[in-house]
Amino acid sequence: MSELTERQIEALLFAAAGPLSIDDLAKRLPQDADVEAGLAALKARYEGRGVELVQVADRWRFQTAPDLSHLMTEERDEPRRLSKAAQETLAIIAYHQPVTRAEIEAVRGVQASKGTLDVLLEFGLVRMRGRRRSPGRPVTYGTTDAFLEHYGLASLSDLPGMAEMKAAGLLSLDLPPDFAIPNPGGPVSDEDPMDLDDDAAPEFHVDYLGDDQNEAN
Q: Global pTM?
């Protein structure tokens, strides 16, 4: 096996977009090239180095040595934007809390999907406040301190009016005609019957970050 064959195989594997089989390599090399011997020599030469030659499903490729893979890991925060449905739901909860899912649906005029509330709960912008003393004992929702911090509010009494709310980025869309802001800038209801303990709160799982059912994109 010539050194030239080894170098040619090395060049092909480094330039390839994916792993190459022996047949792939043979098609590009001179007819008398000993591909298997070249691969064996390369594997031995790179063994123990930062990059190694490995065989994966009958194909060959160079890859980072397993003990150095942590150096290739990059951690970054991926910003996630609230969907239109989530923005509307958050605004309704902020101005009408404590509010039930049925009340949110009545204001928005569409059925609220479980995923929308799950997203707001996962982001920590909304929490379960308690159960309404009414048939079915529905769970009520309210905003959290994280909501105040995110929008730069000292307290719920500092919630802005509709125009200010859009300017602050809380709303970037038009809400349904039935949406109303009760007492803009005024106190928010403190009704909070039978607060739930953390251990008593049901589990929620995020299914998706999308619009509610029956809602056009």
A: 0.45
